[in-house]
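S1.2 Input.
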Amino acid sequence: MERKTTASQASKAFLVERYVPGISRTQLAAVERRLRRAIRELAEAGAEIRLVSSAFVPAEEVVLSVFEASAEETVLEANMRSGANVDRLQPAELSSD
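S1.3 Output.
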């Protein structure tokens, strides 16, 4: 059975940058859970979106997340629904290696 959260080959990659000063790992995990729930809800409603990966850079107080989605607006909607701030959102190119 195919998972609905799988983005199609026509999807584009997007990089989201979040400035998260003073966030604890527990708080960060809660944000990630809410984000994954929002993505699942959007996918169940027919949106093409998938969270590829996230990285926390403690020294910079930044979280970088890579999404695959059909549109930038879908990425923004997932973040808005989860309460995750978006400081920058840029189209990205993923390597296939």
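S1.4 Remarks. Residues 25-44 form the longest helix (20 residues).
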